Amino acid sequence: MLTSPPVPPPTPSTVWLARGRHTGPTAPDVLRKYLQSLKDDATILDFKELSGADTATGESAFEARWVLPDDVTVRARLTLAEWSGRGQEWTLVAEAERPWDLRWPSPAEMFWPWDADAPWGQETVTGQRYLDINPLPDDDKDVKRTLRGALRDTWTVHVLVHEAMTPDERGRRSLVPLLPPGLHHRVVEHRAAPHQLRTVNWALRDAGVELPRGGALVLPGSPAPAGYDGADFSVRNMFLDGTHPAELLDAIRRFVDLSRPLPDGGEVALTALREQWQLLTLEEELARERQLVAMYSEALEAMTQSRDLYREAAEQAHEALAAYREAAAAGERPQPQARATGSPFQQLGRTLERFKVTAMSLRPLPAPRSTPTGQHERDEEAGLTTETTSQALREPSEAGARDGVNEGVQRHAPELAPAKDAPAEQQAADR
């Protein structure tokens, strides 16, 4: 029976998620130096690099904690995957003590230094950069491949802008920095050239959305969040002349506010943040030790109860064994005899009668005789018993056997044959 894959839980409102790739070979060193500088400046409270025993093989992880102006504590964990040919993928999960406010600083800025050529600011699926414009490739096949990757991405919000005409210097600036800081490393902006509109819409037709000419579109992702409608998240006119794109920014904010499930791998990352957190304060360490003491106390109490129950069961078993041994030493208890029915002679007679019936049932039946119809009934009416009938049948058979033997001797040894009976006349004369 086919079963549908389990639906991931929705992303909690207190959680901030992002994923990217660092293309350089020194990602761990960059993280150590930058986190230490932020700690020295009191931007973050503390950070910790986890040991190899607390991470998977080939991975490294860093934890950091900071406090926002409203006395809201944020805990964040960044995991670096194993090095590959294109660099190291990083996954960042941050959780605040209350629902996330997009006006708060991006947690990525608490781990990575930002500059124009920062090697860490690339999105993992399409390879496009954050906080920058990303023109679509010139080749149509590459355009389709890029848009298909953007549609299936579950970590990043992808925005597609069509340039109705070649923009000037002000129009070549990215629109993402105009968003609140909490979206700076969660949104990627793609730019389609004027002649690429037909190719773009052909690649988007399976998703059921369309990019307006000279407009913009927030891509739905896969799966699309509940309540998504392409018409509600598209902008008909985009003026790339430095004008503030209020309509597009509002569409992006509304899209982010939609309830979306945790992205692929997001549930694992969030569980690691909550259950394997190592950067503890003194109060948290004390609370954890108290929790461990309470847990050990409950386990000890359960073991004590089990020991008492076992001891009670053992005592009952010893008592039962002692009672059994006493009964065995005193001898077996006489079993009640079955009540006899009738006298012993009657029982013996019934037993012999059963043996007789059994023997007669096992005795072979005599060969059937060819008698006229009704002869058996007439014999029974005449009062002939079974033994009488058997004797009458046995005597002729014996006589016939003797005659057959005498005839054989007469034929082969005449001198040994008995004398024949005299004729009837001679017998009469002799008498």
Quickly describe the structure.
With 431 residues, the chain is α+β, with helices and mostly antiparallel strands. The chain is built from ten helices and ten strands. The protein has helices spanning 27-40, 140-152, 197-204, 246-257, 266-275, 282-329, 344-362, 375-381, 386-412, 424-430, and strands spanning 15-22, 46-49, 60-67, 73-80, 88-96, 133-135, 157-162, 187-192, 216-218, 234-235.
Mind explaining what this structure looks like?
The protein is α+β, with helices and mostly antiparallel strands. The protein is built from 10 helices and 10 strands. Strand 3 (60-67) and strand 4 (73-80) form a beta hairpin. Helix 2 (140-152) crosses helix 3 (197-204). The N and C termini lie far apart (113 Å). Residues 370-390, 392-401 and 420-431 have low confidence and may be disordered.
Question: Could you give the topology of this structure?
Answer:
Elements (H helix, E strand, L loop, with lengths): L14 E8 L4 H14 L5 E4 L10 E8 L5 E8 L7 E9 L36 E3 L4 H13 L4 E6 L24 E6 L4 H8 L11 E3 L15 E2 L10 H12 L8 H10 L6 H48 L14 H19 L12 H7 L4 H27 L11 H7 L1
Parallel strand pairs: 6-8, 7-8
Antiparallel strand pairs: 1-5, 2-3, 3-4, 4-5, 7-9, 9-10
Helix pairs in contact: 2-3
How do the helices and strands follow one another from N- to C-terminus? EHEEEEEHEEHEEHHHHHHH
Proportion of β residues? 5-15%
Strand order of the largest sheet: 1-5-4-3-2
Helix % is 25-40%
